[in-house]
Amino acid sequence: MALLYTSKPKGLLGIDIADNSVNLVELSKHSHLIRLECYASAQLPAGAVIDGLIHNEIVLAETLQQLILTAKPCCRDAVIALPDSAVIEKQFELPARLNKKQRQAQIEALIAETIPYPIHDVAFDYWLALTQPETEANQTFSVAVCRKQQVQSREIVLAMAELNCIAIELQSCAQWRSRERLTSLSCVNLALGVERTELLSMTGALEVAYGLAARGLVDGSN
Description:
Layout: E1 10-17, E2 21-30, E3 33-43, E4 49-50, E5 53-54, H1 57-71, E6 77-82, E7 88-95, H2 100-114, E8 122-128, E9 138-147, H3 148-160, E10 164-170, H4 171-182, E11 188-190, H5 196-213
Parallel strand pairs: 1-6, 3-11, 6-10
Antiparallel strand pairs: 1-2, 2-3, 4-5, 7-9, 8-9
Helix pairs in contact: 1-3, 4-5
């Protein structure tokens, strides 16, 4: 299969962990072509994941390893989903003159004032909000905050399955990317004999995993 490419295609795995299942999708990119390489799903035993919180990392990693054996993905780099219910989102307005280090320190201080658990127990990310104040003296940043345990447990599961955690992303962001990109299937080379109608129907279950695997391949995300 690799002989079809003049250079090694860039690939990415999307891993979606639900309360009762694990879903995997691999997409690759060569030039302007996005290719569906493989996909697989497996049921989880009751209690392994409850309300998005991982309770049994070993069982989850073993299930993911079985999925990898079944799907035989080409790459080991993965993006994994975090449920929106695990995240608190805020917006903070900061002086535009702050450098990156000052900005992060200010955001961390604001999180400590407004989030209902200790700052040492949280992981957070921030980005420039789409809507900005009229004055150029300030900038608005969107901030996503969750408990470190939610992030660390996912990193541990991927490491146990011998996968590289490239990013952790909200399920809603992955769903948005999946829906937007599936409106134009001409950009997707449907391998594996998958028909377009089948891809559309399967994305009900694999929508988040598909959107995660598309991260960076279609919109330049890191």
